[in-house]
Amino acid sequence: MKTIIQIGLAIVILVLVYFIYDSIMEPVRFNQEVARREAMVVNRLKDIRQVQMAHRARYGAFNSDLDSLVRFVKADSLAVIRAIGSVPDSLTETEAVRLGIVQRDTIWVQAMDSLLRRTRYPVDSLPYIPFTGGKRFEMDAGKIERGFTKLPVFEAKANPVDYLRDIDRWRVYYTRDIEDGLRVGSMFEASIDGNWE
């Protein structure tokens, strides 16, 4: 009888140890999954920023429509300035070009060939937040006035409510401000930084 009680207690102790270990590891596993998901969302936001910068260089303004950005990458072209020669220390670049020491030539390349250069980048997925099943980034663009100058601005944003919603009890462990989410750019200041940087 004593042996049966000892075996029963050993089993109970093992079960309790398992539950304690699992309860300790649950937030650790959650944080690892959040880090993995947020890294993918951040990469997509960086891609949006790269395309927005190219759009601004080409047209002088940011774009507020994600589908238009996809069309821009697929069908538009970008100017690349090819430099031949080097500017001597005694001259400015303009003087060196005027004297023929340096030549500048503009070449037009497909936006698809110079942006998002990862192998077989799925350009059509650019507007969509990873892990959401088709939810799109919130994006806006416009101009703000600083002094007497109007500056183009944009902001793209993803909320954790969207990219974490399928994780059990995510609101219990999530430590950031839920309303802030992950974003790049700002509609209130001339910045293209992400809030993760």
The major β-sheet equals: 3 strands, antiparallel
End-to-end C-alpha gap: 64 Å
Task: Characterize the overall form.
Answer: elongated
* Integer tally of domains: 1
Number of helices: 6
Task: Please report the total strand number as a whole number.
Answer: 5
Mean pLDDT: 85
Low-confidence spans: pLDDT under 50, at least 5 residues? Answer: none
| SSE succession | HHEHEHEEHHE
Radius of gyration equals 26 Å
State the gist of this model:
The chain is of the alpha+beta class and 197 residues long.
Kindly describe this structure.
The chain is α+β, with helices and mostly antiparallel strands and 197 residues long. It has one domain. 44% of the residues lie in helices and 20% in strands. It has 6 helices and 5 strands. The strands form 2 sheets. It has a 3-stranded antiparallel β-sheet with strand order 3-4-5. β3 (138-146) and β4 (149-158) form a beta hairpin. The radius of gyration is 26 Å and the shape is elongated. 17% of the residues are buried. The mean pLDDT is 85.
Descriptive key words:
197 residues, alpha+beta, two-stranded antiparallel ribbon, 5 strands, elongated
Write the layout of secondary structure elements.
Layout: H1 2-59, H2 66-75, E1 77-84, H3 93-99, E2 103-110, H4 111-114, E3 138-146, E4 149-158, H5 160-163, H6 170-173, E5 182-185
Antiparallel strand pairs: 1-2, 3-4, 4-5
